Amino acid sequence: MRFAAGFVAACCVVGAASGGAVRAQDSIPSSLTGAKGDPVRGRAIVTNRQLGLCLLCHSGPFPEERFQGNLAPDLAGAGKRWSEGQLRLRIVDSSRITPTTIMPAYHRTDGLVRVAPAWRGKPVLNAEQIEDVVAFLTTLKD
Amino acid sequence: MSGRAPHLLAALSVIALAGATFAGEIPMTERRSGYDFLSRETRAMQDDDTANPGMLAVLEGGALWARKTGAAGRACADCHGDAGASMKGVAARYPAFDATLKRPVNLEQRINRCRADRQQAPPLAYESRELLALTAYVARQSRGLPIDVAFGGRTQPFLDNGRAAFYRRQGQLNLACSQCHDDNWGRRLAGNVIPQAHPTGYPVYRLEWQGLGSLQRRLRNCLVGIRAESYEYGAPELVELELFLMWRARGMAIETPGVRP
Question: Which of A68, A127, B184, B243 could cysteine-pair with A59, CB 3.0–4.6 Å?
Fold first, then answer.
């Protein structure tokens, strides 16, 4: 509610950019591992509340998941709205698009403060997991 | 309290229409206790003293209040008399500045001071049944009274620290308290409605804990949630956060013992 305006504005600026030539900073074109991810594993990560945490904030086409968040856009259609490279950047570090975003940077360890010892120096998801998630998101065409 | 639901809905739709509110502090008129976000069943549980599981602790606290203990052989009641009179409004003023320690102490710490100094008994452990019971009993005497912590002067630097902590992004998930509790209250984090984080009901009976817990326990839960380093119970940083939250909720009514999901 209060932040809805902010979300919409952020999405439209980015959306406009993605309509034309894709800006370099709006995308990470190549795989972090050099290999293609596995969409089946990616789906499992996205719906796992301890691993992907996505459904804390997002909803999506996961009829078996009862409790989904509404702090963020529905993931349905993400693979139509965004290219693979754009999705990769959004998962790796959304703050490179919107500095004030609440979406955690899933593959960054610098610039964080007071991280609990168990997680210190570790990204939320490793490179292989990022690729799995990206591979899954690209399948969300509608 | 109970008449607020229609207001809340009205407020939410106004905000949705107005849209362009900026991130930041919640305007005084839009503040809502966690109570307002409860299901009807949970509200009914809090409202009815015979159904509120926190009342068991209050009763136990009342018994402890009257029991002589420690080397001094004194009961709280020996010095403070009827809690209904002597402890009325006290919880609404805590954390309060402690002249000896030269910093604010919370209600649990204040009670433990009397344990140690006046009763000459060993301090009670944080989250122990006895300390929670005594705290709930003392805080219950403020039910319905407005939160009124002292700020300015010597407490100001501590309040400022608490405020800075509230607005600081932290943990592996890199989230500030404010990003959930100021900017996204009323929305759903998975299955949970995000409340505004007003400390009106503490110690609360939390259904998830199946027991009573302090405000510090709640704060530690949120810190763990964002994968941030936690603080020891009683740490100055947690007391500063408590102080800031109480200031942020100034004027709101104490509900102890609250019930939360």
Answer: A68
